[in-house]
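Appendix B, Record 12. Input sequence as logged:
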Amino acid sequence: MNSMNRNLDRLLRAAAAAPAAEATALPFAVETRVLARWRRGGTVDEWLGLRPVLRRGLACACVLTLAVVVLSLREMRHTAAEELAFPNAVVNLALMR
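Logged structural output:
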């Protein structure tokens, strides 16, 4: 553990002795874009991240709705004889007693 402390101390001393980089000013175009975005506010941009998720959710809901409608129409295509088969069976069973 002591060797790690020595290495860390050496690293920190070397970093302290290194020359500091000079801070340069931002270009005018970057400054104006940052200020314009700050003035505009962030409420509009918060929903932009959710837009693709909401689109995919809407697309999935539409596909599921279409599937349910198709399955419902397929079930409704029974003939009159098929529709009356179950009630006739119930009546026949009731009359047999």
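Residues 51-97 form one domain.
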